[in-house]
Amino acid sequence: METETQISRWRLILGQESQERFQGMQDFSLNEEQDLMDQALAAIYNRRESGGFGNGAGKGPSNPQISRWLGDVRSLFDKELVTVIQGDAMNRCGLKQLLFEPELLNNLEPDVNLAATLMMLKEQIPKRSKDSVRSFIEKIVEQVNKLLEQDIKRAVTAAVNRRKHSPIPSAAALDYKMTIERNLKHYNPELKTIVPEHFYFYDRTSTTAANKWTVILDIDQSGSMGESVIYSSIISCILASMTSLKTRIVAFDTNVVDLTEKSDDPVDLLFGFQLGGGTNIERSVAYCEQFIENPSKTLFFLISDLEEGGNRAGFVRRMEEMKESGVTVVCLLALADGGKPYYDDQMAKRLAGLNIPCFACNPQMLPLLLERALKGQDLESFQKEFEKRKG
Q1: 255: which DSSP letter?
Q2: 137 lies in a domain?
Q3: Which of 74, 269, 332, 384 could potentially form a cystine with 262 if both were Cys, beta carbons 3.0 to 4.6 Å apart?
Q4: For the chain, what is the mean pLDDT?
Q5: pLDDT in tens, 300-339
């Protein structure tokens, strides 16, 4: 049985061209499900033989045919493979225009790269597809938000709530960690729970505007940063929802746009970005400087590939001055799940020489980075730890 399975897999890998060779093997045949897999894969990878989804620009595929193909792919393959096949279909079969058909978008498996492509092409999306595109983007936002929100809020709370305690009870200000730690000795075996004798509450007066951390996210919206823009937007909205922080959200290419007012809705925020175009990082950093009220309580994230098309020396000088003033400065070359980021290696080395950490960060690592930065801990050691994990 194992041998038959391996033979079938090789037949699917090699495609329909290899059918005659496999027919020579005794009792070999694809079962019904494998035959459907074969047809679905052939539509992309054996287009000359199968005709794919259509032949020629004037004989494009019918919507029902594509919809059936999408349905087959999603039912036959694992979720991870579905996103790979969808990406190949776009590149090999010219499906970019077909993505703008509402009924097709409703059948697509949510994928960050695909969402980034849609965002880049949003100005060309016809009116009949705008609602479907927004719905598709909302699915991505919901997935990422579910993945990151609790960890980010937990990390920020752990960092900014390191303050003195108050005798005034308040459920919202309860220090759960200390209350549990100090009352472990009061564990009741019969009730199987801790019965606290004393509760600890944070002093809420220390969260006044003057004591709040300011987090500035300066986000590169050039074409290479699509996936990073999506993650950055969602993370920005999570941070902006926390009253213990003051959050600024800035997007730039050759121009600078302040998107802070759109932080109530990550989908609206995403549609505020204009992916593509050149890069002037120095101009965006200059704009962000006005929001630094207390340098020692400011965390500046530059999310960029560092491909500076403006004043390179001016950019480095501004970053150095910001760092020396006491601001915690971090450069994220990419904020994405997969792939090695493309970036200006020379510029990254110049910033690293100023003790400004520059690295590509997996979104799941960001909560830990945030906590360490807000606690004033050494970020160079975090960078080394992160690189070691990747290796």
Answers
A1: S
A2: no
A3: 269
A4: 81
A5: 999 999 999 899 999 999 999 999 999 999 999 988 776 6
Closest listed residue to residue 245, CA positions, set 260, 265, 230: 260
Q: State how many domains the chain has.
A: 3
CA distances from 227 to 116, 219, 231, 336 (A): 6, 12, 7, 6
Single-letter amino acid, residue 240: A
Give exposure, 362-380, as e/b (b: 16+ Cβ within 10 Å).
Answer: bbebbbebbbbbbeeeebe
What whole-number distance in Å separates Cα of residue 231 and Cα of residue 247? 16
Q: Is there a contact between 291 and 262 (Cβ–Cβ < 8 Å)? A: no
Give the chain's radius of gyration (CA, Å).
26
DSSP, residue by residue, 110-176: P-HHHHHHHHHTGGG--HHHHHHHHHHHHHHHHHHHHHHHHHHHHHHHHHHT-S-EESS--GGGB-H
**Residue 75: which region, alpha, beta or left (left: phi > 0; alpha: psi -120 to 50)?**
alpha
| Angle between helical axes of 79-93 and 63-76 (0-180°, round to 10) | 150
Burial of 188 by CB count in 10 Å (0-12 exposed, 13-18 middle, 19+ buried)?
A: exposed
- Prediction pTM value: 0.72
Closest to 161 in 3D by CA, of 248, 238, 244, 236: 244
Q: How far apart are CA 258 and CA 267, in angstroms?
A: 16
In a domain, 313, yes or no: yes
One domain, residues 37 and 6:
yes
Asked if 181 and 270 sit in the same domain, the reply is no
